[in-house]
């Protein structure tokens, strides 16, 4: 833990279940990651992230004092260079989508194996999106909802045809490599497309939040 | 004044307000009667003094009942005493002849305020009782009781007012109590659901942990791990069904619910975050078609094959893609199977979708698995139900 090797990836584990939190922290430490902090809730995660500035934050969705989406917002506010990987137990639902909108770049179910977890943390640290078919289905559904919703505006986020294609392939269980082969593009290009779908939702969310804040006078300091 | 101010939660507040409107009208009538008859009184000056007291008391009552601090036995009792006193005071200002020929000096209408207040405060029995008491004092003043209801129905009216207003107050209180009970019940249910979510989440986490560790340890523990994993998935399905059920009306069913139920070790289901509402019959048919496709995967795709179900809501149509990563087949074999009449399941899938005016398309290649794309039009009402 006292290892100051710059190559070592620092991780913070946010989970309200002590057994699970410790098990994950131990697993990651065994694999050579530096688990620099753990937290059980939104407030603790924010406080500690401000101090330790972890490379990767492993985020549970259900926390002691709120949800993972709120904690993601808090952590990224005080440590913008951190990357948030959601590790959720309760399946892929609206709350995971909220965490993605708040800035999470990856998602993994808790039933994932140790190897999958290790790989996901390493990929997240490198700035790559960790995606499951389930999350692709959610993101795709969100864009479709925005497109046909009554509040659809021309400024709302939309997918390019290629991005839609890529998301559909991911949701149907194809790996990035398989998709790259199908579309005759590079592996990296496929990943860029996936990340773009995330980023646009995050930006739209931020614009939405800012508009809300201005409309409700929350932008002015009292 | 700070003891019983319950205006906001008091279910009889509207009745008290209405009663003060009546009080105002009865006061105006009493004022008119006073002006018209003051010259006939024996002591008009005292009459004006008493009318001043009556005015002050009327105002005090209106304020007390509207504000809420008068809505208690002591105040309503005081009102009754003042009303009786005023009726009896007729003897001080008027002659025997005048009394015999007229109603009491403060008017019967104004006196009715006492039974009304009593009825709102304590129900129909007390309301009618107060009405009878007021009329008894009135009778004592006149020195006779008139049972000729055809000529003088005042007593009947007093009883009716006490009964009707009292029952209205009682009904309002009972409805309010029922409502409070319902609100309490729903708070209890919400709290139970919140606790259940927490417990479920905890159990899911522990099961997931057991499954993970068990697989790592291997051997007989892997068997336990498999069981834990199975239960974890089952519980996760239950939890997602619970949240999906909220706020969906009966005619339309969320297609995500049955599809999520088909997820297991080999089947990955991806759905949108918002409900995909379709008619119950359509949902049942689509779910059955997906079941057929998955049966096909199990039978033909190979033992290691996994299936991926993707549900997309395009607004005017809904598409379900079911793809497997199994062995697939060359297109010739598909044609061969068709010519040999071995297309049972496939035909039933196509048939189901055509019956829904939709379509079912199959694509396959060797080593590429098989992919079905099922599409149906939605025929939704104009403003489709939206969430969030």
Automatic annotation (TrEMBL), chain A:
Keyword Phosphoprotein in record: yes
Pfam family, one: GerE
Residue ranges occupied by any HTH luxR-type domain in the UniProt entry: 152-217
Record InterPro entries: CheY-like_superfamily (IPR011006), NreC/VraR/RcsB-like_REC (IPR058245), Sig_transdc_resp-reg_receiver (IPR001789), Tscrpt_reg_LuxR_C (IPR000792), WalR-like (IPR039420)
UniProt-listed SUPFAM superfamilies: CheY-like
Residue stretches spanning the membrane: none
GO BP terms in the entry: phosphorelay signal transduction system; regulation of DNA-templated transcription
SMART domains in the cross-refs: HTH_LUXR, REC
Protein name in the entry: Response regulator receiver domain-containing protein
Superkingdom assignment: Bacteria
Entry keywords, A to Z: DNA-binding, Phosphoprotein
GO MF annotations in UniProt: DNA binding
Residue numbers of 4-aspartylphosphate PTMs: 60
Gene assigned in the entry: narL_2
Signal sequence, start to end: none
Domain spans labelled Response regulatory: 10-125
Family annotation (CDD domains): LuxR_C_like, REC_NarL-like
């Amino acid at each position: 833990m006292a290892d100051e090797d710059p190559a070592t990836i620092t991780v913070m584990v946010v989970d309200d279940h002590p057994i699970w939190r410790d098990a994950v922290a131990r697993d990651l430490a065994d694999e050579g990651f530096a688990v620099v902090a753990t937290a059980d809730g939104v407030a603790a995660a924010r406080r500690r992230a401000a101090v330790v500035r972890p490379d990767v934050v492993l985020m549970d969705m259900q926390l002691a004092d709120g949800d993972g989406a709120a904690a993601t917002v808090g952590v990224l506010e005080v440590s913008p260079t951190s990357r948030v990987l959601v590790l959720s137990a309760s399946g892929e639902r609206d709350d995971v989508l909220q965490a993605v909108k708040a800035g999470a770049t990856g998602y993994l179910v808790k039933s994932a194996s140790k190897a999958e977890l290790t790989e996901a943390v390493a990929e997240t640290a490198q700035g790559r999106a960790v995606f499951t078919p389930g999350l692709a289905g959610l993101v795709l559904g969100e864009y479709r909802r925005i497109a046909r919703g009554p509040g659809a505006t021309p400024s709302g986020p939309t997918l390019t045809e290629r991005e839609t294609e890529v998301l559909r392939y991911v949701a149907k269980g194809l790996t990035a490599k398989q998709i790259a082969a199908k579309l005759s593009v590079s592996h990296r290009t496929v990943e860029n497309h996936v990340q773009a779908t995330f980023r646009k939702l995050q930006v739209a969310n931020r614009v939405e939040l800012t508009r809300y804040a201005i409309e409700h006078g929350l932008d002015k300091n009292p | 004044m700070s003891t019983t101010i319950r205006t906001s939660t008091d279910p009889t507040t509207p009745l008290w307000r209405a009663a003060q409107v009546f009080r105002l009208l009865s006061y105006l009538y009493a004022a008119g009667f006073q002006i018209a008859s003051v010259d006939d009184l024996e002591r008009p000056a005292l009459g004006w003094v008493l009318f001043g007291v009556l005015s002050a008391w009327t105002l005090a009552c209106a304020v007390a009942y509207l504000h809420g601090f008068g809505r208690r036995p002591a105040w309503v009792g005081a009102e009754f005493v003042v009303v009786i006193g005023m009726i009896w005071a007729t003897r001080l200002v008027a002659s025997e002849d005048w009394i015999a020929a007229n109603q009491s000096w403060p008017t019967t209408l104004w006196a009715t305020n006492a039974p009304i207040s009593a009825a709102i405060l304590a129900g129909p029995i007390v309301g009618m009782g107060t009405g009878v008491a007021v009329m008894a004092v009135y009778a004592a003043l006149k020195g006779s009781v008139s049972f000729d209801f055809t000529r003088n129905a005042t007593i009947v009216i007093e009883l009716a007012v006490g009964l009707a207003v009292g029952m209205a107050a009682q009904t309002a209180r009972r409805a309010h109590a029922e409502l409070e009970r319902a609100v309490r019940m729903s708070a209890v249910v919400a709290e139970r659901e919140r606790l259940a979510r927490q417990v479920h989440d905890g159990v899911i986490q522990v099961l997931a942990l057991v499954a993970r560790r068990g697989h790592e340890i291997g051997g007989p523990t892997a068997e336990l791990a498999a069981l834990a994993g199975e239960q974890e998935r089952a519980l996760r399905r239950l939890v997602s069904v619970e949240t999906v059920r909220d706020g969906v009306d009966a005619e339309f069913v969320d297609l995500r619910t049955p599809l999520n139920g088909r997820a297991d070790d080999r089947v990955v289901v991806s759905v949108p975050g918002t409900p995909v509402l379709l008619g119950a019959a359509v949902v049942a048919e689509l779910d059955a078609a997906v079941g057929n496709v998955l049966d096909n995967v199990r039978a033909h795709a190979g033992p290691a094959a996994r299936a991926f179900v993707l549900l997309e809501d395009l607004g005017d149509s809904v598409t379900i893609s079911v793809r497997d990563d199994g062995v697939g087949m060359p297109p010739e074999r598909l044609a061969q199977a068709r010519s040999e009449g071995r297309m049972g399941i496939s035909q039933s899938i196509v048939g189901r979708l055509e019956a829904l005016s939709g379509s079912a398309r199959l694509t396959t290649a060797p080593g590429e698995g098989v992919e079905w794309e099922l599409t149906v039009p939605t025929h939704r009402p104009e403003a489709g139900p939206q969430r969030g």
